[in-house]
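Per your request, structure below.
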């Protein structure tokens, strides 16, 4: 277990938390009123549309790639 991994993961978690806190534009009405209700589920506070998205953000890129990186690193650490 190298401590340098911990630093990287912590930085990624910060990114994810920031992404989760951001308001997202609703794909239905376009208003930035979308909030995450549970894992991969988002709801628009304006038009009440519920839609599935990435684990952390409606637009999968940040959350998914970061969580994949994190998972693969954890798996590697477990294997060693
Ligand atoms: Zn909406």
């Amino acid at each position: 277990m190298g401590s340098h991994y911990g630093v990287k993961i912590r930085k990624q978690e910060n990114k994810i938390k920031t992404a989760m806190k951001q308001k997202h534009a609703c794909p239905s009405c376009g208003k930035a009123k979308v909030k995450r209700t549970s894992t991969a589920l988002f709801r628009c506070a304006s038009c009440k549309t519920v839609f599935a998205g990435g684990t952390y953000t409606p637009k999968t890129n940040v959350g998914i790639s970061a969580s994949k990186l994190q998972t693969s690193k954890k798996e590697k650490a477990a294997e060693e």
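The domain at 3-79 is CATH 2.20.25.30 (N-terminal domain of TfIIb).

Regards,
D.
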